[in-house]
Amino acid sequence: MVRNNINLVVWLQEWYQSQCNGDWEHSHGLTIKTIDNPGCSIEVNLKGTVLESKSFEKIYVDNDEFNEEKDEDWYTCFVHDGVFEGVAGPQHLGTIIEIFKKLATEQ
């Protein structure tokens, strides 16, 4: 699983670099950060990319729905105002990058 996540990060950096054209990267881009649930989030600004007008159905998975003591096995991804947003429990950063990759690479 770790190797797969490293490959996803490499793919994401290559996708980002392929968008950089001297203008796009100055006002758009991507952000990966932690949240206090605990968890992580990723935002990818799709404006000015071929993904800007692509439709994407919201994804929400909560594997801890019935476990109030532990709420870390969840993730959600959606596009809002031209920005892909993925938010997840601490073990799912790779999951949300993989979902973004699927959005970016599927025809």
Average of pLDDT: 91
Q: DSSP strand (E) fraction?
A: 25-35%
Give the count of structural domains.
Answer: 1
What would you call the shape?
Answer: elongated
The Cα radius of gyration reads: 14 Å
- Extended strand count: 5
Instruction: Tell me the strand order in the biggest sheet.
Output: 1-2-5-4-3
Structural class: alpha+beta
Poorly predicted residue ranges: none
In helices, the fraction of residues equals 25-40%
Give a description of the structure:
This protein has about 110 residues and is an alpha+beta fold. The protein has one domain. It is built from 3 helices and 5 strands, in the order ααβββββα. Helix 1 (about 1-20) crosses helix 3. It is elongated and about 50 Å long.
Key attributes of the depicted protein:
107 residues, five-stranded antiparallel sheet, 3 helices, alpha+beta, elongated
SSE arrangement:
Layout: H1 2-19, H2 24-27, E1 30-35, E2 39-45, E3 59-62, E4 74-80, E5 83-88, H3 93-105
Antiparallel strand pairs: 1-2, 2-5, 3-4, 4-5
Helix pairs in contact: 1-3
Concise structural overview:
The protein has 107 residues and is of the alpha+beta class. It has helices spanning 2-19, 24-27, 93-105, and strands spanning 30-35, 39-45, 59-62, 74-80, 83-88. The radius of gyration is 14 Å and the shape is elongated.
